């Protein structure tokens, strides 16, 4: 039977219940991670837990599992499923309070810890024919100033993503008020211009994506492309040869049109194929 984990217990999903006084429900006061696994092998597990721990420290949430405890919890949830390719959803909130109030409650309040797994598609083979490219739109980023924190308060992201869907597109790329491309509503963005790959540097305007981290590391080691962590502006984006988005669940996806205008020649490019081959071959080393 497929199990979920909630606060020390493994149980059927319908038996897992959370109080409406949980600060995750009341304030979105919590963090999450999504970790992919293929045939029981995780991609970037330690990197995901490290990012979670950074966020927890930032929010002063203590008393969460150690890396080894996370591994045991996640392994048991995975093993309770029959499917071989699973995404793990991990959520930690500040916990349940007696009274609603903005201030952090006393340290005696224990965090709520939840893990469940959901089936994900078999990874695509690294071939142009097995890839469905994205068509995307752009918007000015309307979210808060701490997009580096992977909070469950995702309404800004949800609204940007929904805007894209309503335009019959697959994702929404986001520009800051200075007209620089930072990330997208649910993914990081890479831009290939000639032999140089650009992606925005890590700061408060974007999530430090684990797929971004892995791909950057692989591109640096590979040396085919020059890699620069620098945000591109609208003119540079319009002149790009290729654009790719990255996220744990979608890996590396080529973008062939932005706001209805073709990227490069409007087809999946050889740069994406090279990058995706690197990612496919290297991802389990993280
Ligand atoms: C806003 C945003 N940026 C980037 C990413 C990509 O992060 P990762 O590669 O860790 O999945 C995500 C994934 O959820 C995201 O929501």
Structure, described:
By secondary structure, the protein is of the alpha+beta class. The longest helix has 14 residues, at 45-58. The model has no long low-confidence stretch (mean pLDDT 97). Helix 5 crosses helix 7 (270-282). It has seven helices and 15 strands. The chain has two domains: 4-119, D-amino Acid Aminotransferase, Chain A, domain 1 (2-Layer Sandwich); 128-285, D-amino Acid Aminotransferase, Chain A, domain 2, CATH 3.20.10.10. The strands form two sheets. Strands 7, 8, 9, 10, 11, 12, 13, 14 and 15 form a nine-stranded mixed β-sheet that branches. A six-stranded antiparallel β-sheet has the order 2-1-6-5-3-4. It has helices at 23-27, 45-58, 67-79, 155-166, 210-222, 234-238, 270-282, and strands at residues 4-6, 9-11, 30-38, 41-42, 85-93, 112-119, 134-140, 171-175, 181-184, 188-193, 196-199, 226-229, 242-247, 251-258, 261-262. The structure holds pyridoxal-5'-phosphate. Pyridoxal-5'-phosphate binds at residues 157, 183, 186-188, 207, 209-212, 246-248.
The radius of gyration computed from the alpha-carbon positions, rounded to a whole number of angstroms, is 20 Å
The helix content is 25-40%
Give the bound compounds.
Answer: pyridoxal-5'-phosphate
Number of DSSP helical runs: 7
Largest sheet: 9 strands, mixed
Mean pLDDT: 97
Low-confidence stretches: none
Question: Span from first to last CA?
Answer: 29 Å
The class by helix and strand makeup works out as: alpha+beta
Q: What is the total domain count? A: 2
At CATH level 3, the topology of the largest domain is D-amino Acid Aminotransferase, Chain A, domain 2
